[in-house]
């Protein structure tokens, strides 16, 4: 690779070639050596191997194994070079945390599961494992492959364990997706569901969110409709999830987990009335502006689901911001969000003439006309056309007949 034999000049700073990764040509932050003796930046060589390559990128020699040995000497030299050039704006690379050794992970999981160990020792071990998971995706993969769920799941629901141990194991379990048999283990036992629902009212918001995360995974991973209905019947479940959405302080993870759990539960028809009775409609509208894109789509999908039952429609109709927010969202977030917003508006305007007038006053007609001419989904366009037809009596006399937008649309006057 001839280009790598020259110093790289970036904004006047020459980076020595042996400090640069032969793959990315960027300054190495975590240099590691492969079996051929060549050194690469860890992230670059891991990506190379992950895409199915089994040779050394520089020498093209077959790798005898995929062990990556940290090159501490080179990393320290790079750090010293960074420090010597800090007056030129070069920041010192941090010392990277090394991936967890599989044998260490197995030892830690064994210590955590051993009832002969003191409770506080087991708690400390679980916290250490959580720290390793947060450090890197590599650690997460290693820990996941060592059956962490099978080790931790019994601890969460063991009535003989300490509260601290239970909460720490719950926090670790919530960091990994559950398999179908794990979901069955929880959903098939009403006491376990009742326990998780009780944690939704805990004074610690972290414990409440961890419980909601586990509930969401169980609902989404349970095939039996009967069991999903039984989960929704747990006392205080919807109130607890709604309270997470209403949490007064900025807690992005709480919003994300809360809406995922509420959406998963509301996919079951029998659960929707319970959600509305717990105040879900008000919480969704109040928080709609705070969701990130993917979560906003889930929130709007949940709103449309709840609008399919009379009590849900009534709850949304009673909130002054429902119609203005739904109108504003059309064509603003994504095709899915637009479709869900149009569907919810169609349900609401079908039941209340005053909401039809509110929607028109909020500018829905122009939004719908733009929608039917856009590249949005056919379902969204169909909902928009139905909504336009429904609103025709609410259009001001001079708002549509003289509208250039209407004239160029593929929706004819009704």
Automatic annotation (TrEMBL):
It comes from the Eukaryota. Residues 14-88 form the U-box domain. PANTHER family: U-BOX DOMAIN-CONTAINING PROTEIN 26, WDSAM1 PROTEIN. One of its GO terms (molecular function) is ubiquitin protein ligase activity. Keywords: Transferase, Ubl conjugation pathway. It comes from Aquilegia coerulea. This is U-box domain-containing protein. It catalyses: S-ubiquitinyl-[E2 ubiquitin-conjugating enzyme]-L-cysteine + [acceptor protein]-L-lysine = [E2 ubiquitin-conjugating enzyme]-L-cysteine + N(6)-ubiquitinyl-[acceptor protein]-L-lysine. The lineage of its organism: Eukaryota, Viridiplantae, Streptophyta, Embryophyta, Tracheophyta. Gene3D superfamilies: Leucine-rich Repeat Variant (1.25.10.10), Zinc/RING finger domain, C3HC4 (zinc finger) (3.30.40.10). GO terms for biological process: protein ubiquitination. Transmembrane segments: none annotated.
